[in-house]
Amino acid sequence: MRSALWLILTLTFLVGLFDLPGHALDPFHTGQAWAATNAGSQERPTKPRRSRTSPIRMAPTPLSLTTIQNLRTSSSPGLTRLVLDLDAKAHPGKHPQLQAEGLTIEIPNATLSPSAKAKLTAGRIAKPFLITQSTERSVEISLPAGSFQSYKLLTLTNPHRLVIDVVPLGEPLTVPPVESTPPLPTPPQPAQPRAKSFQTIVIDPGHGGKDPGARGQRGTEEKDITLKVALKLRDLLSRQPGVRVLMTRERDQFVELEDRAKFANEQGADLFVSIHVNSHPQRSVKGIEIYHFGEAKDQRALEVAARENGTPLNSTGVGWEYLVADLLTSKKIEASLELAWTAKEAMVTNLNGHYALVDHGVKTAPFYVLRFTSMPSILAEIAYISNSAEEDLLRNGLFTTRVAEALMEGVNTFLASAKLATR
Q1: pTM check: above 0.85
Q2: Residue 283 lies in a domain
Q3: Cα separation values, 106 from 110, 144, 165, 219, Å
Q4: CB neighbours of residue 120 within 10 Å
Q5: CB of 125 within 8 A of CB of 131?
Q6: How confident is the model over 194-235, as pLDDT tens digits?
Q7: In CATH, what number is assigned to the domain containing residue 216?
Q8: Which of 230, 235, 226, 233 shows the shortest CA–CA distance to 206?
């Protein structure tokens, strides 16, 4: 009797601890309970047990928004073109149906940037395009009925763009290829096919005159270092046959950023190399980095561009509106990237054995001095003048000579690869 009572008390304790089913208390059903437990391992129970914890419901992850950074239109006889500059690939609706009120192209998971909204508010988009932010995650482009004869929608990359061509009613279809999109008034004309026996390289020493650029702890000014390196690079490149070397400045003088690019375009330059010296609030930071024009991928790249541009940080990123939606622009960006890599690799190879070099790589940022050039263009940050050790190197003639030699090797490597590609 005492042993049976002890068994019942023990089973009661186990029920409370492990939440055993009530019939397990019945000593006469012990065998049935064991059988039921083993059967559960072979057959799916008819009713799943309720969990003691609250169920967790994972909300579906929404697709990231594509920002329409800029809107621009251009017109030619028989055609009106709308170009949307994007920060990522967009997925517009396929073949929208023509309704009584017209046609609407929906761009899901998209939003208009503040500058794009400002253009719409100011009425700077040509007819017949009507653009609205229909929802927080959708943009619509409407073409009213009776305003067009036909349309074509193109999705382009590098950089990401949407191009909508519209032929007005009663106009012949004269759609120019995207490769020859009529440029906006501000950007330079695309470079013409080369028909000369020499190559023109424009070297751009950063800053100058009233603009000293960055300043080191010992008072070294960026404008003096960039001119020193540029003059050495000019002398090295000028010794090579078939090369014409020009400079945006040859002395301590101030030249506007836009004028530097304009000079290169007017001279029909094949390459544009801008030389600068970096700076950082943290004085231990040092090293090299090479930039080509594009959207800043990180905050630091945007800060460098803001400093070199002499513009507030919050307005530096606005630069994509000056890119033309044509193939030449894409080719220029690709060639600039290749030039940046060859220059960076040459600097690493030539300097690494002599100095404790830190390689920050190749980056993109919206530099004004590169924005209007119609040829492959790079901006080289050759050292950090804010770092006391690298400031001393910049004051050393041997270091600046080696930097110039490295840049020359990078240019030569790029030109050689370009010649092989055109054969």
Answers
A1: no
A2: yes
A3: 9, 14, 16, 57
A4: 16
A5: yes
A6: 445 679 999 999 999 999 999 999 999 999 999 999 999 999
A7: 3.40.630.40
A8: 226
